[in-house]
């Protein structure tokens, strides 16, 4: 198993959220947010992750789910866990009207949104209202809408906003030589086609949410890995009632990809939220499931330490490393 003292970033969870707030929940009196309590809960969760052999957590919240960049920096300093922030937008229903309505005739332009993402990748993380930290984002994170997501009364429709966000993510990633992580929903191919149109190489695209039972039944993890994408099985610890495969099925997928010579194109994570204020998640306050549960089960099922090092070490490291993008 990877230890926190191993080379590079050590054990990396590529799809987690440190802190998430349902937009508006922080403004109502019944949700009094105690920052001291929040910090302590997160410190304990991150310390447990570190003690299990973890080294790095990628916070996939982006700009619109309540990210607190200063809190992330302080937690990293106190716990010794590297926290890599993401830029980008969460689900369309989390994106504020500044980006979606009357900023211009048709809403904020793709290039303007891309510039916001790019500057977070190259200049530093935004801190409301006009500050910028020295720490930069490490990846662009975007989320595809599901059919069950709410249709909000926006000047532009949800589909239009989502298309612009996906295109902006690709443009920003190309400019900053970063990767894009896209959490897919009901129509993964539609989101991926837009990224390809914008010239983002498939090997710089992480496709999250592929341990959904319907995607597994359709053979999508194997098909996308064959095409060169990085496959994200990022719901370790989630119940099958939420539509995800169980632990045994997830392990079989990973072992099958290694047997097919595609082991360097898959990552695992749990999509946990350290502290959530009304933001939906099935895994809260626990970043240890992958190291405490998945890793031993993977080895018991026939996986090797070397494969685990690739899965939790060298592949996430490669994703987070800036590289030259052709074209």
Descriptive terms for the model:
alpha/beta, two-stranded antiparallel ribbon, 11 helices, 39% helix, disordered N terminus
Topology:
Elements: E1 11-21, H1 35-51, E2 54-59, H2 69-79, E3 82-87, H3 97-100, H4 110-122, E4 126-127, E5 131-132, E6 139-143, H5 158-176, E7 180-183, H6 188-197, E8 205-208, H7 213-217, H8 220-227, E9 230-233, H9 247-259, E10 266-268, E11 273-277, H10 289-300, H11 305-320
Parallel strand pairs: 1-2, 1-11, 2-3, 3-6, 6-7, 7-8, 8-9, 9-10
Antiparallel strand pairs: 4-5
Helix pairs in contact: 1-2, 4-5, 5-6
Q: Please estimate the helix content.
A: 25-40%
How widely separated are the two ends? Answer: 38 Å
Global outline: globular
Low-pLDDT windows of residues = 1-8
Order of H and E elements = EHEHEHHEEEHEHEHHEHEEHH
Number of strands: 11
Question: How is the main sheet built?
Answer: 9 strands, parallel
- Rg is 19 Å
Query: Which class of secondary structure composition applies to the elements?
Result: alpha/beta
Average pLDDT rating: 88
Strand order, largest beta sheet: 10-9-8-7-6-3-2-1-11
Q: Total number of helical segments?
A: 11
């Amino acid at each position: 198993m990877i230890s926190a003292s191993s080379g590079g970033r050590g054990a990396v969870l590529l799809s987690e959220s440190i802190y998430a707030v349902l937009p508006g929940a922080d403004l109502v009196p019944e949700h009094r947010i105690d920052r001291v309590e929040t910090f302590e809960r997160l410190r304990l969760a991150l310390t447990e992750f570190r003690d299990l052999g973890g080294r790095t957590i990628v916070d996939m919240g982006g700009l619109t789910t309540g990210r607190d960049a200063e809190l992330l920096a302080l937690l990293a300093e106190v716990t010794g866990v590297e926290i890599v922030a993401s830029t980008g937008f969460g689900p369309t229903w989390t994106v504020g009207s500044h980006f979606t309505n009357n900023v211009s005739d048709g809403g904020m332009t793709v290039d303007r949104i891309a510039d916001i993402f790019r500057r977070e990748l190259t200049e530093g993380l935004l801190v409301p209202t006009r500050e910028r930290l020295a720490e930069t984002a490490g990846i662009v994170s975007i989320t595809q809408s599901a059919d069950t997501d709410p249709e909000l009364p926006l000047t532009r429709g949800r589909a239009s906003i989502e298309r612009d966000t996906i295109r902006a993510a690709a443009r920003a990633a190309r400019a900053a030589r970063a990767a894009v992580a896209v959490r897919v929903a009901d129509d993964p191919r539609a989101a991926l086609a837009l990224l390809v149109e914008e010239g983002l190489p498939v090997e710089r695209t992480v496709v999250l949410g592929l341990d959904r039972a319907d995607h597994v039944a359709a053979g999508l993890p194997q098909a996308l890995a064959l095409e060169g994408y990085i496959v994200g099985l990022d719901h370790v610890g989630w119940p099958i009632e939420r539509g995800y495969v169980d632990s045994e099925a997830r392990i079989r997928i990973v072992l099958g990809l290694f047997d097919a010579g595609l082991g360097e194109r898959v990552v695992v994570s749990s999509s946990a939220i350290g502290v959530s204020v009304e933001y939906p998640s099935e895994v809260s306050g626990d970043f240890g499931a992958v190291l405490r549960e998945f890793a031993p089960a993977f080895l018991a099922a026939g996986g090797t330490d070397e494969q685990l090092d690739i899965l939790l070490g060298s592949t996430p490291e490669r994703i987070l490393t800036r590289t030259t993008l052709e074209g």
